[in-house]
Prior knowledge:
The protein is of the alpha/beta class. The chain has one domain: Alpha-Beta Barrel (TIM Barrel). The chain contains 6 helices and 10 strands. The strands form 2 sheets. It has an 8-stranded parallel beta sheet with strand order 7-6-5-4-3-2-1-8. It has a two-stranded antiparallel sheet with strand order 9-10. The radius of gyration is 16 Å and the shape is globular. The chain starts with a strand and ends in a 20-residue tail after the last helix. Residues 221-226 have low confidence and may be disordered.
Amino acid sequence: MSGARVKICGLNSEAAFDAAVAAGADWVGFVFFPPSPRFVTPARAAALSARVVGGPPRVGVFVDPTEAAIAEVLASVRLDVLQVHGAADPVALRARFGVKVWRAVGVSVAADLPQQMVGADALLLDAKPPKDATRPGGNARPFDWGIVRDWTAPGPWLLAGGLTVANVADAIRVTRASAVDVSSGVESAPGVKDPALIRAFVAQVRHVTFSPSPCGRGLGGGVSRE
């Protein structure tokens, strides 16, 4: 029985970044997708990342990225993980850039749950976006966690989609997820992270005890970048 790990995503301010690091987040995420209210430029992400030497691994979120677009970001800021939504080849990205690649998967029914890793180092289960959404994630929508109970994960994975301080403990117990990803659930307004909510979310996750799913422990924890 052990606590789950936490990724705080969509960081775009000094206060939010500092709060995530101080709270003990296992990963911190930057969104490089302009339609998102959490979008940051590579230069902005680099400035935020530089506030802490070492600390949690940095995750870059990309939607249908080209290799050139990723290379442009990496020229400014070091990333430890590429989180890709949409069309992308994890094997090719890992071979070119030498970092881990997480593949985001939209879920609404059991049939959507992935049966293969398709070359990714980890999967991120998120709710399918509404039809009028301008982005594939960060829409504050959960999916039916019950469908995960009978799923045999093909490898390491994280749970995302509509998680908040109020529901994350139940989400972990139901799904047995060993890692969770939050963005809108720790905001006071779209794109505005609330340091108090970040601290409360991490604390809530740390207090949950559960039996993790068999494939949940291959992600690697928050490690120093020194």
